[in-house]
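Researcher: Structure prediction, please.
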Amino acid sequence: MIEQIGTFFTIEMIYLWLNLGVIPFWLILIVFPHSKICGLLVTSVFPFFVLSAVYVYLGYYFYISGYDFDYNFTLYLGLYDLRNLFEAEAFLIMFWTHFLSINLFCGAWIMKDSQKLLMSKYLVFVPLIITYFIGPLGLVIYWIIRMFYAKRINLLD
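Model: Predicted structure follows.
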């Protein structure tokens, strides 16, 4: 059965579905943040369970394909080694899945935190868009807005 799935879900197909698959979550997060569906689908564990399943499938797929996972540890040796590592299709798609998961997690956290502080969804719109594209920069922008909105700095939240 895994072989049949493998023939349909090529790396290019998985890349396409990953990119298209996160867009509805982000749209719900940005447009309907206070809806029940946002709480059930986006800010729950559901999208991360799906993305983790894709990650596990990719790990299994590359393991049976003979990919050398020990080679991944060369990313710590230097920038040249990291560049060479990104030339490997296996590492690149697994990194992309990781990137999409972390950005979506950060976006969900921003939305839950802003709701806890009763912030307007329009105030959080720009940091969410930036988090979708550039993850950490969106978090920093949200944190700055949050400081002024909450009128306090708390590094432990």
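Model: The two ends are 45 Å apart (CA to CA).
Researcher: Thanks, that helps.
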